[in-house]
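Notes to self after the Tuesday call (sharing in case useful).
The group wants a holo model before anyone commits to mutagenesis around the pocket. I volunteered. Ligand is zinc ion. Logging inputs and output together so the record is complete.
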Amino acid sequence: MPRESLYWFVVFYIFAYILQDVEMRNIHAPYESPASQCGYLSCHPTKPNMLNVHLIAHTHDDVGWLKTVDQYYYGSETNIQKAGVQYIIDSVVDALLKDPEKRFIYVESAYFFKWWREQTSVVQESVQKLVKEGRLEFIGGAWSMNDEATTHYQSIIDQFSWGLRRLNDTFGECGRPRVGWQIDPFGHSREMASIFAQMGFDGMFFGRLDYQDKDERLMTKNAEMIWHGSANLGKTSDLFTGALYNNYQAPEGFCFDILCTDDPIIDGKHSPDNNVKERVDAFLDYAKTQSKYYRTNNVIITMGGDFTYQAAQVYYKNLDKLIRYSNARQVNGSNINLIYSTPSCYLKSLHESGITWPTKSDDFFPYASDPHAYWTGYFTSRPTLKRYERDGNHFLQVCKQLSAMAPNKSPEFEAHLTFLRETLGIMQHHDAITGTEKQKVALDYAKRMSVGVRACAANTRNVLNQLSVKSETSSRTSEPRADYLLDFKICPLLNITSCPVSESNDRFALTLYNPLAHFTDEYVRVPVSHYNYKVIDNNGAAMNIQILPVPHSVMKIKKKILKAEYELVFFATNLPPMGYRTYYIEKWNSSENFARPNVSPKKTSSLTVIGNEHIKLGFDTNGFLSEVTADGLTQIISQEFLYYEGAKGNNEEFLNRSSGAYIFRPNQNKIHFVATQVDIEVYRGEIVQEVRQKFNDWISQVVRVYRAKSYAEFEWLVGPIPINDNVGKEVITRFTSGIESAGTFYTDSNGREMIKRRRNQRDTWNLKLNEEVSGNYYPVTTKIALEDGTARMAILTDRAQGGSSLQDGAIELMVHRRLLHDDAFGVGEALNETEQGEGLIARGKHFFSFGQSGNRSGISLKATERIAQLENMLPAWQFFSNMKSYNSEEWLTSFKNIGISLALPKPVHLLTLEPWHQNQLLVRFEHIMEKGEDVLYSRPVQINVKSVLSSFDIDDMRETTLDGNAWLNETERLQFVPDSEQEVYNSYATFSRSAKAIHLLSAAKPLLGVKYYDEALPSGQLGAESNRIKRAAYTERPELHKDDQAPGSMAADFTLKSGSDHQQYTIELSPMQIRTFVVTLSHV
Ligand SMILES: [Zn+2]
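Result:
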């Protein structure tokens, strides 16, 4: 495109963007011209007979950590950290424009687009040029560099989709990242690898892995590998993955940034300080050493760090000299070649080397940076922020769906939705949801969430009013109304039974919006101030209800807030797929037929049992859970709360590590009981039965079984954790069964596939464990389970937590932690959360499932758990409306209920439905079962998209990569070839004994150095050598579902009936497959 028309396009584009109305018929913006030289075409040439050193100029810009997002962006609070992202991008762009040789990568879209919006069109045009020529390259590209342990796959996919969409809208094909860049997250999940692969990425590099694993991988040249991201999806989930040599820092002595104190290269010919020879010698030695641990004649050296390049010319000037003086030695026989490069150019060189690579099938958890620093505390840190993030995702999905189905779209919809999208993107950052930020930064995240949810609630209120008001009621206008008939308020404090609308009105309506594309039945709890109510459904039928008093421990928190003393419970059935049903709730003045809920009389001599025909729980005379009957099995199963004392030390050497926001390190691995006797109250009703346990003054729990559910709920409440003994405490819940699990248990990977864990063991090296408790902790995003030949026990969580099985048959989950010391990884504060001067109280739910592990009639327990997991993550959203102006008859005739989607088969989840470009929807379907989880539900499923989304007028549909920003059939990925079995064996046989370096990562966050002493980590003692016999070659390769479609497949059972003209809309999903489509709607 000629220059001047490009200019006008840019101007038009910006204008259009401001209007939030940019029309993008093609996924790729039309910036790309044949002259584009971005991506692999822009790489500087390497020299085939030399060691090519790829210098990566980069900056790592945390989207909040010690400072808030805005403080980092604008560079305020310099006393905390000298970090201003706006200066980084300013100065890098200047430096790049001056010299076409230079390269830079940028990662965090949250910051980039904040900056972009502030630029003049002239600057934007220059940046377009830099991107088009591959001089500025986006890498990673998501809204933030997400954590991989505590994040849910839905939110990871969402925040990549949004970051990549903004890049695509702005820069077209050249803005699309090819490589993942997870340099700082504290361990790496297999699901993340799978997601990258499905988004079409060619590879991924990261910085942090267990120090023993790293040692082993370097010694055996296995630090770069093909990672099998899924046990279900085959090759489409394979990702080339590289562990960086020096985390993401510059080699020691070569940080030329203004934030560092290393010497510049001094090349004055006669300067007494001239250090060219010495510096170049040192750098080339470093490169040579590094190359010994990698397979090709290329090495990648990261030249940057946290918030580096605020004065880019300082770094670049020295890199220029380093390159010039190093390469000048080639005329004298040096065979080392330094180039400005990017991770994708490095990856291209690896690909072109034509060699084969090792493979990996497990994950990189937990991460240990030294023998006593297991980064497993952050799996639980800040439990209430972790839960809030889940709530935020829940509402984001509701808001997306309702915004997509709005008959009339208000101009502000897109901005509101985008604000919540971007807030959730920020929340996934590896110092946000992880709980490893400073307290005031955590508060800033919470505030953003609150604003985001409120903004989107303006959309949902508008849309629900449009949808529910019958035409005669609002015949005056088709415009979205400014004054709404109904409030559709949201109540963010329902978890402590608090909601102003239901507590203070005698008549109100509860609208349950079901974000799943299945019919659901749900037990609903509503805060109310009295015990006389009637509830009628949208057909005028009275509902059975049960009233329960709010638990004492919850009343204690609420005292300061509101007055609901009761919870009204009823069973809402047949909630339509992606639709809603409204209930009219009215206080009843007659006191007949109503009575205060009563506690069942106390038993003192025998078992207290609650339950239904599916599951029964027995509690002993001391008030503890003691046995469970389900599925025809009865087992002794106990549940209790315990705590570890957080280790306390000065952090100056490994042994003196404190437990903190990142690190879980219990004092002497000792466990403490919180109670020997538990006070209980029992409530029995038609709808739910509850045992309310009080363990002590700061731990209580409601254990409940609903009439029709096959699992039990354990709603725990922990806090304020006492610290008057000056000891930090880490509280766990533990379920102990007789299941003979033989050291094996299973945890989920970001809420999707389950990964097998073995106590005191890692799959790929001989583990030497110095921390037997924390070294066995794994991230549990949604589920932890164990089983033997007979029985299976699983716990589903409502937020990410750390979990383990430290004895056979036992599962523990850490629910809350309060610590008094910093663990010296940079945050500089103890994790001591308080609220109104007292320790923070956390409340949450565990869903407990138990039954037969095999031979079960009906669907398997695993499949039941998957469905329960989905329904508990995305239950119906509760909207409350004051009904002062409508009695129940008026209400019945004035409003309507709708469902917009046809019900999908149970194993299929409509993962995404959101407004995309104009007249477009982004839609994702997911098969939620793994292979073999259930005889019926694990089969491939066919659905017809047009039938499912029958209320939309669909014109066209095209499949994209997982992120929704590239057409699937136009996406090609670099293919890497795995080692043959013989090569796997040989690579161990050539293990070099002479390698003497133990490449222990400096685990400290940069800028805040912590001193480490060498604690007995001499060469060879980490078991590298002996591992080679035990390590198995990975020959078992999962294949795509094609094999499963043997004749007789019952996929057709699930096939929705559809006319033949709908063939193009019929899709098939194999276990764990997600398929993403951009659906184009007809203009109305
Ligand atoms: Zn970071």
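Two things stood out.
Residues 608-874 form a domain with the Beta-galactosidase; Chain A, domain 5 fold (CATH 2.70.98.30).
The chain has 21 helices and 47 strands.
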